[in-house]
Design goal:
The protein is globular. By secondary structure, it is an all-beta fold. It has no helices and 30 strands. It comes from Rhabditophanes sp. KR3021.
Amino acid sequence: MTTTASAAPINIGKLPWIDEHDRITSVVCDNKLYVFDRKHKVEGERVYSYAVFYTGLPFAIYDLSTKKLIHHEVHKDLNIAGDVAEMIFVINKDIYLMTFVSQDCIDLKDVYKFDKASNEFKHLFKMTGETKYPGHYQNQSCRLIKGGADDKTNNVYFISDAESSTDVVIALNMLDAKVTKLTFEAENKDEQGMRLIMTNACYHDNKIDVFGGVHGCGLMPVHNSVFRFDLKTMKHSVIPIIVADNFGLGMSSIAFMKYLPQKDAILIGRNYVTCGMAGGMQRKWDEKLWLLNNVSTSHLKWTRLNSRLSGNSELPDNRVIFANCDPDGEVVVYGKKQEGVFIQKVTFDTDEPDNFENYE
């Protein structure tokens, strides 16, 4: 086991605006970090349920090569009416903003593309085809998460808890704007289907692995399995995960994940603790990085890395407000409310096991 010290983080500057609500979203594209502010939309006396960027808010761009802030401004209002949610994501070297309704259903609306020359989102297309997925019950706030993209088919995949979520993947073709509902069968006839509150998903080699948790004292993350959609066989199954050595995965959510084909693994950064806290306790930042190994197989294994995201701080009101990584998983970037943006090289050395006491 290697125990090389984790690379030290480098501060590349503070955000050019004051973050008030910890709702920032970020993407890494073409070796640049894009940071977008978000707020709940207000129309008259009505405050809508989702925080969004498209109403015209600040954003900033950092060059990860020069480690400098290269642009920031306030984006124009895209004039999107109603209680409409958004999702910002990257495909290849382009950034997109997708809008959708999530109350009582998932109803996919429009896609905007970020123009790097003008530094603004411009309308690309209105989605067509199978765009609407009804909820299970009245007044359901439906979840939609991005599962990843396939460069060969130009499809972007999404998972939702609307309709029959254990059997359906939503595919958006970025060339013809058409949405298709892909229906899957259980690989094992006795399988009960997905029983997770889904939080994240990752596409790799015609598979989509869905991660999540269950209700407990907060959201209790499930570490010992993933729910997998196989796009070749059109079947879904629950894949068990073992933990290498004596590692404790803890009770934190996922901050980001990135498929690394050269390692046959998914790099995962942990987020704040979501469960197991006494009343009134401040949520602790989980600074650990993990690899989910052997993802091309059904023999998955967790390994904790020696690298850390140094998020915890003695400074007041200095929370980590976003975390991400580059497409190759070589560096992680994260922002803290007081100290600003950090870049840190990932070392893939395996961490020392935890020292648990044995109780008889």
